[in-house]
């Protein structure tokens, strides 16, 4: 609803509070978390949404694909980040990337689908209650 630039700023603030107050993620992984969750995810989602709207795809389908692929892209990015940090002793970064992608990214597909569906439901509730003008996402 606000674009990837705003999400980058808000996401860093949220992740910083999460690391400091909830001890989840930590300060040592803040940069990696910020990159995957506040840069890659929002920009992938924004691009998917804009492409879908340019192709005249239904708004609900566009939002679903936007949220699902944005969410999933963070997991794929994290898999590559983990592969660089923890390379496989025999097959190196490529082998580690295949392992992390096959376990971490694939298992997150159902979660990404659920979050895509939840995004559509919440967006429709916001619009139906006039809490946000629909032309904001045009």
Automatic annotation (TrEMBL):
GO CC annotations on file: ATP-binding cassette (ABC) transporter complex
Entry superkingdom: Bacteria
Its membrane topology: Multi-pass membrane protein
Keywords: Cell membrane, Cobalamin biosynthesis, Cobalt, Cobalt transport, Ion transport, Membrane, Transmembrane, Transmembrane helix, Transport
UniProt keyword Phosphoprotein, yes or no: no
Main localization of the protein described in the UniProt heading: membrane
NCBIfam families hit by this protein: PRK08319.1 (NF006184)
Protein name stated in the entry: Substrate-specific component CbiM of cobalt ECF transporter
Native source organism of the sequence: Lentilactobacillus kosonis
Organism lineage string: Bacteria, Bacillati, Bacillota, Bacilli, Lactobacillales
